[in-house]
Sequence to fold (435 residues):
Amino acid sequence: MTSALELSDVVKRFGGVAAVDHVSLNVDAGEVLALVGENGAGKSTLISVACGLYRADSGTVRAFGRELPPGDPRAAIDAGIGVVYQHFMLVGPLTVWENVVLGREPRRFGALDAARARREVAGAAGKFGLAVDVDARIETLGVGAQQRVEIVKQLWRGARVLILDEPTAVLAPREAEELGRTVRALAADGRGVIFISHKLREVMAVADRVAVLRRGKLVQTTARTETSVTQVAEAVMGRPLGAEPEAVAGLGLSDPTTGAPVPHPGPIISPGSDIAVEVRDITALSDRDRPALRDLTFSIARGEILGVAGVDGNGQTELAEVLTGLRAAGDLAGGIQQKLIAALELKGIPLPRLVVAVQPTRGLDLGASRRVHDALRDARAKGAAVLVISLDLDELRALSDRILVLYDGRAAGEARPDATDEQLGRLMLGTQAHA
Fold:
């Protein structure tokens, strides 16, 4: 195969610390390379060197055999390197096609050639089955559609190497599956894809090879067929996970034999009729004065963890703010005093009766995530009611006794922690799961 992108002996220091320490890595044309590692392992720094945002202290970057000048983003773009970041870089009031061509608008007789722009954008989307309405305004689209726009933008601009930064972090399961198919289609078309993710189950589903960074060094590069989720997790952390089920469940990993998500082993205190907090008919507006919560009702018992799932933007933020007194609208029955507590701070303080954890492990590495999960379980074991709001379904399955799914600010339904991606995904997209 031809190397689409090759990094050779790259070193990047900040002060006296080597964020990237003599790393050599390549992705071939037609290949999906997964890049995993703890926070601070050097993933973002390495990618910033690859796309010219950072100038390496030493080492070289080549695209399709041509060495790129260090620290030159324009040269990287012209060489066909495109990055889709976790936080999208789109202009809300503009249409899809306007966002895609922004800054590189095709012109005819000195004026914008809108017909050509629309035609080319639609063609780039259609080639890879990326369903987008080119005339829709970005602010009307969900996160999955916005991500497709970002990918179309890179393809329209000629990207032959696509770097996807945590691409499934905000997607529903069905959208994540669609993205996986898109990634494989891009590789089949001869493009190189670097897939950066903390979700090891998805990494193993989409990648041809898996590269692990730890403390700035490349510690492992293996074919997907020659490794496992557990082995990759151990390489990321630099130590064995342990054989106990809680060690695997606490990280939201999959069973090494079946590949299925491993749910938590169950509450230490069985939830009963002792209701700690009851929410009735809560309605709240978003920061843009649009309905965010619509007549939402639920309860949490003492010694129970209630997980809240949903595609980002379906009322999760507003729910957390209402429960913690940061936003007005709705009544909490029972006169519960709310406290917003970081999970890592739960030990060594008087235990609150209600713990609200919002994206408790977002951006955390595997070891830190495990400690957060342990702290939340400990709070449950001591009788607290715990509400966990997360976009990571594996995390919710690992922690929750019940999972409440929000859609458009309403309760779309509840599910058990052993619910499948398909069952949860139907609820997350506003469709009742089949029995």
In short: The longest helix spans residues 173-188. The first strand starts at residue 3 and ends at 14. The radius of gyration is 23 Å.
